[in-house]
Amino acid sequence: MQRAARTWKLGELGIGFVPTMGYLHAGHLSLVQVARKEVGAIGRVIVSIYVNPTQFAAHEDLSTYPRDLRRDLRLCREAGVDAVFLPSDSAMYPGKGEGSYSTYVVEEKVSSGLEGASRPTHFRGVTTIVAKLFNCVLPEVAVFGAKDWQQASVIRRMCADLNFPIKIVVAPTHREPDGLAMSSRNVYLTAQQRLEATVLSRCIRECQSQVRQSREIPVGQLVDLIRGKVEGETSGKLDYAAFFESNTLEPVERVKKGTHLALAVFFGKVRLIDNARL
Predict the structure, then answer these.
(1) Which of 251, 259, 249 is nearest to 123 (CA)?
(2) Which residue out of 25, 28, 174, 260 is catalytically annotated?
(3) Degrees (nearest 5) of the Cα angle 193, 212, 172?
(4) Average pLDDT, whole number, for the chain?
(5) Domain limits of the chain?
(6) pLDDT score of 215 more than 90
(7) Which of 4, 27, 38, 185 is 20 to 30 A from residue 45's alpha carbon, by CA?
(8) Which architecture characterizes domain 184-277 according to CATH?
(9) Mind listing the pLDDT tens digit for each residue in 238-274?
(10) Any idea of the CA torsion for 177, 181, 185, 191, to the nearest 10 degrees?
């Protein structure tokens, strides 16, 4: 991968990169199109497919995370991807099984709340693998989805703090016709849970409506509204509803136009996230 990237750079070809964990859907393919626009027709668009073990806790779904490499490769080919990078665990974490892998990348501020609070080891795995993928692919541009807003914010901070010469582009969340944010984990939902899962986008729309009607709203009032809607569903259980500044992720006490909302909700064992600027 590094040899190919260096060859392209010598030919002055831009490299656009979309890191994924596979089981691709239309949301991933929209990121590919953004990368293509960034590097142009003669640039190179690279997609990585790697289910990164270090961002999963012991009780999470690493072993059952959905995989379909043959379909992923077909979708990449049809979308005009120039190369797919498929690293192995032994390439990414050499010697980890023997305890000799010991270097990690840790962002300590932007990653501390929200997903970082609910999944304490998650972002150490994310920043480590993304840094390693950047060092392999050597992109000028990397594209992430806004559905994982905190992840994109953490990566932006990592690149700024560690002087990665990479432009981070955050593309809009891609949604199903009924409003559910596209996610590889949606496949886990039962038919009933799939219907209930639209409560995330419904909560966002209701909060947007409330903000349009009021100059400022206490956070607790909107959290209670969200909790009522989520727990009104048969299997819905609210993990968190957080309101914060979009750029810094600093929590706010009163919600107004421009405040960001992030949600995490369990439907049985399936945990889905969503977010939006209000």
Answers:
(1) 249
(2) 28
(3) 55
(4) 96
(5) 2-171, 184-277
(6) no
(7) 185
(8) 2-Layer Sandwich (3.30)
(9) 999 999 999 999 999 999 999 999 999 999 999 999 9
(10) -40
